[in-house]
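S.,

As promised, the magnesium ion run. Input:
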Amino acid sequence: MSSARKINGTAIAPGLAMGPVYVVRATPDVVPSWSLRSEEVEHEITRAREAVATVTAALEARRKRVAEETNERDAEIFSVHRTILEDPSAFGRIVEHIRDKRINAEACVQLLVEHLEQVMGGLDGDQAGRYGADVSEPWCAVIAELSSSERREVRASEERVVLAAVDLTPHVVTYLDRDRVLAILTETGGRFSHGGVLARSLGFPCVAAIPNLMSRLEKGLRVIVDGDRGTVQLDPDEESVDAFLERRRRHLARREALAVHAALPSITADGQLFAVQTNVEGLRDIETYDIDHTDGVGLFRTEFLHMERSEFPSEEEQYRVYRRLLELLEGRPVTLRTLDIGGDKRLSYFETPKETNPQLGWRGLRISLQWTDLLRVQLRAVLRASVHGDLRLLLPMVSSIEEVRETRRIFEGVRTQLIGQGYELAANVPVGIMVEVPSVLFVLSDILKEVDFVSVGTNDMVQYLLAADRDNPWVAHLYDPYHPAVLRALQQVAEASLRAGKPCSVCGEMAGDYATALILLGMGFTGVSMAPNFVGEVKYALRQVTMADARELARQALREDSGSGVRALLEEARRRLHDSLTGEETSQT
Ligand code: PEP
Ligand code: MG
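Predicted complex:
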């Protein structure tokens, strides 16, 4: 590969891909801004005009509906909004900005909004403030329409693309349908950020933390992405393309070899069963995945079901998804996690406060226990679906036994209500907790008396144990899943669960590394759950070893006094296991 146009970043998700770049400029709460070439100016004015017309028509339709369903007076606000959009001087201002500043329509409408809010803010009294919000609201709808029309344009084309963006967020990773994305490139982000986790889960090769990425790319530029090595080749020459094709051929051969192992039972060479389950973000993951390869869903991140929409899914919608998932799994366990939003997982339609330390803030179960109506809707859907398979409920971000008790109390209340309404429910829905917050490590034996299983979320547990934000590239070198403190915490969890006779698994990213999975087996964990892509490797490794081998590996890892010592040990184990599979390099780092 020639190096002139090669750029480096951090390898986030393995795999190789080649294709044209599509630059994702929008994030849900930032109005995108980019400069225009002179020949794009007229097209941009047309785009603005069309967006205003679309929103105007939608307002009129809403006015009619509200007038019919409620009354004329309540419908009046939509006429006011329509009149605001029809103001020729406002639209004239947008056109002027597009021509003079040569920036996109969204950014110009945003300038108008700021101008209107400034003018209204200058007037006296509450009334003026309220009027300011009213005046800008329809224009904000125009911005939203412009952003989604840009997305519709790329959706309408058939081409598969390499998505490039500033931040590695779940929004960017799910920007287009899965079958349209070849790979993901970003300027920031790390492997354990939720965007990184999602990219691995969806099987997209991903390279992040590429300095000045956006200034080096333009729409349509062809690139080769190497998610194993963390490199990107811009505008590759013939020699680079040939080398890419050859490596991809070897990759595919390896993947085929692993698929054979993925279909085999999850059992050690001396007959110990160890559950190898999958993490799922949505129904689509499971519908496109060879379901026979998994021992169940160890983690269904229900927040992604919420993120794909423009409002909270109803009880009925959730019920249908959970039921379908259970039916697809045909009796194998489905571990459904209650809504785990907050931190970097945000819903466009649910405003959460701006927090200085969002990772230490309003997240996961903390939100559910404050907004109990949301929790109740989800629990009703869960319980109604429970008759269709082996459903288990998992609680995220637990930090104390009181939270478990409170959730169980609500859960029982919902159960009683549903029975009263005549629903048929499973006799028992096991409830477990995610071990993520370090306080839980010290009270786990108490909590284990009140729950049925535990699952360690190492992505979060590592950040909290080591005080190193999983999303922050400045402390990425300190975020070390192999820090001895992390391994000793994991051992504590396994031992406490064994003593309590309750199953324990790991569903954080480290479980998808096949050598690490053997250490977890040796520690006493009863299973692991990971992105579907890694199941083949983990099963392959599992079937090569005896329990004595796994225990010895765990003992050696726990004796190490540094992360680098553990990594060297893992590297050696990987080499031994890997030599017998194929010659291609490992996909894990
Ligand atoms: C974890 O924290 O390890 C986990 C599995 O949950 P999430 O990555 O969704 O926070
Ligand atoms: Mg977590």
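The pocket of magnesium ion (ligand 2) is lined by residues 396, 436, 457, 459-460 (CB under 6 Å). The first strand starts at residue 6 and ends at 8.

- D.
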